[in-house]
């Protein structure tokens, strides 16, 4: 738990302001921020993502948020003025309403706003318009024009897409390992690295494991093995990583084309923030396409939820 003054320029810094709860709801964890009396407190709880975990897990995570507010945040859920949740996977009105329902039960007096997690990124950068590319467990691009018009590309989940994400990179590596089996080749460096990471002795065991262990966060967590080998100039790994970067750049360009804008473009998500070479590849491809206003997100995305919540708090009427 972190308790500190709101960063300069953040809504409510140095003021009493509304009592705001911001949530960045990912597939494996939920980042929480409480803004009250000019102070910011943050914590991390389990995933409350209605698209990737069951109702019991969502309820448990949000109940943990409520308990944290009372114990560490020194406030209660009923004190919350506004709750803004940005969530991965809320791609339909139904999923938004499901998360909103869970939040309404726990924050009965608050105005509640649920958005796709990509919206938090621009807000965390203090931007009102631009394009966001997220590459972590999944991958998506989203953008907004100054007039409020929005567009998105990708983000269709691990069954239909997510190329360029941690999961997509490892899925491509497993496919390569199975092609080696099909063609009778000895396991290459990448296949050996995957087997070691999964504690498997034979390449064909990766097939059984992939179906027996469908949890995408498990496989996304193995992307470091592929990225490390790419950094060592392993040709197969380099090809996979280069392909992922091309997909991400294409997602960004699809959004900027639809919006008719030239940036800025913000790269976010675990792979963009923590693997400079991968983010650099995406940036280089965007520069080749004429997009030079590219930056990597440095701040915590949950701060974007605080900013959006503050805007909602000062809106003339509630948003539903």
Helix fraction, binned, reads: 40-55%
Q: What is the gyration radius calculated from CA atoms?
A: 21 Å
**Mean pLDDT level:** 85
Report on the biggest sheet. 6 strands, mixed
Oligomer: single chain
Q: List low-pLDDT spans.
A: 1-8
Strand content: 15-25%
> Which class best fits the helix and strand makeup?
alpha/beta
Could you say which overall geometry the principal axes of the C-alpha atoms support?
Answer: globular
Care to count the β-strands? 11
- Helix-strand string: EEEEHEHEHEEEHHHHHHHEHHEH
How far the N terminus sits from the C terminus, by CA atoms, comes to: 31 Å
Strand neighbour order, sheet with most strands: 1-4-3-2-5-6
Helix tally? Answer: 13
Account of the protein in words:
Helix content is 46%, strand content 19%. The chain has 13 helices and eleven strands. The protein has helices at 55-71, 93-106, 118-124, 157-160, 166-183, 189-198, 205-212, 216-220, 223-231, 235-259, 270-274, 276-288, 302-313, and strands at residues 2-5, 20-25, 29-36, 39-46, 82-87, 111-116, 130-135, 139-144, 150-154, 265-268, 294-296. The strands form two sheets. Strands 1-4-3-2-5-6 form a six-stranded mixed β-sheet, sandwiched between helices. Strands 9-8-7-10-11 form a five-stranded mixed β-sheet, sandwiched between helices. α9 (223-231) packs across α10. It starts with a strand and ends in a 7-residue tail after the last helix. The model is unreliable at 1-8 (pLDDT under 50).
